[in-house]
Specification:
This protein is of the alpha/beta class and 348 residues long. It is built from 11 helices and 12 strands. The structure holds flavin mononucleotide.
Length: 348
């Protein structure tokens, strides 16, 4: 199976309709969902020629961890909805592809189960109203071997989705956080009072692990995250599942990169579907790009093997795109490689 679109079609046929809709949906009337895709397509690549691209290398690193390519796996909840092996299979397939997995607070597997099969992985946190419970999850993740903590900043409340109400997950499905097992829990757990100060709180609590702030869409916020001690910022609109009408990530990314300069790594997600999109993201200032839904489609259809195949084929597409752009490596990609529509800011 080649593309995320094909994985999605197969997953649509294989999964119950309510599970498919839960994964596919955006919030509101899905303006941002459409905007994310469109904004990548509007970035034109400006290939260089006559550069000897007989050897092309996709390998890179994130926060000092080597990865096979700049395509990594974003945190998404409830993987057991898509496949009985849930996050364990996703982590395994991701490790086999030499990529990095981010485990969601809303996972349906235990930290130990995931850590046993994972390659490098980070832990995504929602800061919960119950800070003692949050601290317990953070310590558990540190003990299990998480290499960084990801603070999701765009979800003070869970937005109303376009196509579904409650998450279609039964009480018998195991949870990483067993306290969050009630069916109607979405939205009642997250603390809406989170501020930049909590970046330091997380860092201290974890004994100094890097903190990545996910859900940043503005340059001034990115700068404030760095000033508050963030090791990296992640440009994301939660796959168009939070504020509908939010700026597409391909539009926000260059502004965020311009604001932080080279002070930190910058990641991006939202509508990344091809190796071309990944190279566009690099050109607009990203250190690496993450996929959310594509990993769930591949998991739902092919389990760990599906996730590995998806990531391997995206890596191959990145290599082909780099070669056709006259780049031998990820570090050859710069702002000069992309043209954006008039009026859209580049990275400065
Ligand atoms: C079904 C689903 C569940 C998600 N759950 C979480 C989550 O638990 N934590 C989080 O930070 N982001 C979550 N996200 C957002 C993803 O991390 C990511 O930002 C988004 O999926 C990227 O867009 P893409 O799906 O277009 O690749 C979720 C996204 C989806 C589709």
């Amino acid at each position: 199976m080649a593309s995320p679109a094909e994985w999605e079609q197969a997953a649509r046929a294989a999964l119950p309709a309510d599970v498919y809709d839960y994964i596919a949906t955006g919030s509101g009337v899905e303006e941002t969902l459409a905007g994310n895709d469109r904004a990548w397509h509007e970035v034109a690549l400006r290939p260089r020629v006559l550069r000897d691209v007989s050897d092309v290398e996709t390998a890179t690193s994130v926060l000092g961890t080597p990865v096979a390519s700049p395509v990594l796996v974003a945190p998404t909840g409830y993987h057991r909805l898509a496949h009985p092996d849930g996050e364990v299979a996703t982590a395994k397939g991701t490790a086999e592809a030499g990529s990095l997995f981010v485990l969601s607070t809303r996972a349906t597997a235990s930290l130990d189960e995931v850590a046993a099969v994972a390659g490098p992985w980070w832990m995504q946190h929602y800061l919960l109203r119950d800070r003692d419970l949050t601290a317990e999850i953070v310590r558990g993740a540190v003990d299990a071997g998480a290499r960084a903590l990801v603070l999701t900043a765009d979800t003070p409340y869970v937005a109303t989705k376009a196509r579904v109400g409650a998450v279609p997950v039964g009480p018998s499905v195991p949870r990483l956080v067993p306290a969050m097992e009630t069916r109607d829990d979405e939205g009642t757990w997250q603390d809406p009072a989170v501020t930049f100060k909590d970046i330091g709180w997380l860092r201290e609590l974890s004994g100094g692990l890097p903190v990545v702030v996910k859900g940043v869409l503005r340059g001034d916020d990115a700068r404030a995250c760095v000033d508050a001690g963030a090791a990296a910022v992640w440009v994301s609109n939660h796959g168009a599942r939070q504020l509908d009408g939010a700026i597409p990530t391909a539009v926000a990314l260059p502004q965020v990169r311009a604001a932080v300069g080279e002070a930190c790594e910058v990641y991006v997600d939202g509508g990344i579907r091809t190796g071309r999109d990944v190279v566009r993201a690099l050109a607009l200032g990203a250190t690496a790009a993450f996929v959310g839904r594509p990993a769930l489609w591949a998991l739902g259809t092919g389990g760990a093997d599906g996730v590995r195949e998806l990531l391997t084929s995206l890596q191959a597409e990145v290599a082909e795109t780099l070669a056709l752009c006259g780049c031998r490596s990820v570090s050859d990609v710069n702002a000069d490689l992309a043209a954006v529509p008039p009026g859209r800011a580049m990275r400065g």
